[in-house]
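Listing 4. Sequential folding, example run.
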Amino acid sequence: MTAVFALATSLLWGLADFGGGLLSKRLRELTVVVVSQGAACLVLGVIVLVTGAWSELDARLLWCAVAAGAIGPVSMLCFYRALAVGPMGVVSPVATLGSVAVPVAVGMALHGERPGPLQAVGTLVAVTGVVLAGGVGGGGAPVQRRTVLLTLIAASGFGATMSLVAEASTTLAGLFLTLFVQRVVNLVVGGGTLWVSVRRGTPALPEEGLRAVWTALPALAFVGLADVAANGTYAVAAQHGPVTVAAVLASLYPVVTALAARSVLQERLRALQTTGAGLALLGTVLLASG
């Protein structure tokens, strides 16, 4: 159960990251965040009303969801900006290394989790594969320090958000409510930041105006909904098994991003990246069997 949902998380996040990075090359990153999360918020609002998830509201859930919602826009803004200006194959795995460290640390510190020998080996192999699949150190395009800094900020935020959502979601209804509250706060924080930046003279729309956003709306909605679904599948994975295993398997999403970039953007995979993809898959098998 943990392996299946964690791998689903990696697939959804990989596609969402690729879509968000691609859209950020045409639209402003903050606009991508606000519109995509707004679409997700609408869908989650309907689900909460239909399922009666409001009955799950308590102080702990509210605090975790609000904290995750406040961190989310900053993380996504930094990440989309890094994806837009830096090589996707480098930004994505570096973000993974940081984001997986936080949930693993939480699982070990709060829940006393200790991975077994096979899982420890699988963790090392999978993380190594993620790095190699992204082409880090493989002679690719140079990465600016600003891009690395943005990526590290995003990675820390992603890890904190994953941990907060997993801690708040003890039931399925609670998960829906947590994700909804998180997205509402995302909109408040992201929308407020966008409004302030517009007041300071930074345009929210590209030269094509609102038409560009309207044309990209289906893709923006997909990015938001895939991100929400990934948060949900990760929470389920963390509830049904060790957080350490769920976090590592979920961190395989850069492989999906790299494959999507190869298919759509014709980014070539070097031999080192191919080796990394194979190691990532091997690590997945070791973690699942452990």
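-- end of first protein; second protein begins --
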Amino acid sequence: MKVPKAGAVATVIVLAATASGCGGDAPKEPISIGIKFDQPGIGMRETDGTFTGFDVDVATYIAKELGYKANEIEFKQVYSSDRELLIQYNEVKFVAASYTINEKRREKVEFAGPYFVAHQDLLVRADDTSIAKAEDLNTKRLCSVSGSTSAENIRKNLAPKASVLELGGYSECLVALQDNLVDAMTTDNSILAGYSARKNNAGKFKLVGLNLSNENYGIGLKKGDNDLQRKINLALTKMVSDGSWEAAVKKNFGPANYKYEPAPQVTTGN
């Protein structure tokens, strides 16, 4: 039998190691995370293709704690009406998209967190003084997003006679408000503050300043995935303790002079 030369043996060993993945440099499958693409300050896909917002920073931090680098993250657009579906059909690993924790959603998905507390408010045109409280909406036209808790809260609890227009995204509601097709738009104050603070919206809109609900944002994930829930909760706790949470809040909401709540205690999974 012909014995291979030392160089050939070395080559065979290297090739075998590479094929078996022992080299440690095998490309990692990217992690898919659902975020909003049209919420300034929360989750926004900018014109240059980059992503900005508090939820983006939270998602990136969680992914890092799960072992993923920034370039190993694939952000996928989610809408308020399809977040559960994307989780259930494994289109995303988790969702960070101003996703309020409630019992109805808990029937379909698991939550980690909460990691942020917002309050439902109203955004009106800057020169409008006719809306000072929720009841004023009973004679007004209101815009919200399909599948959001905000529209349901107005319709059932706060202003049942309001004319409610439900559109696919908050950007569409903002256009309707600007074009005088509606008198107000409603969602969480964090989202409204993000729109109001955009440079091209300066001086056009104002928040009424109402706390119409408490919205505890959670990270949505597959029902029954308690291991991932535990890991995300640990990441969120660490993000608060090392100062990254506070830094992300100030970076994304500071320009809007938004008065935010302190970081909530993580309670899911306990």
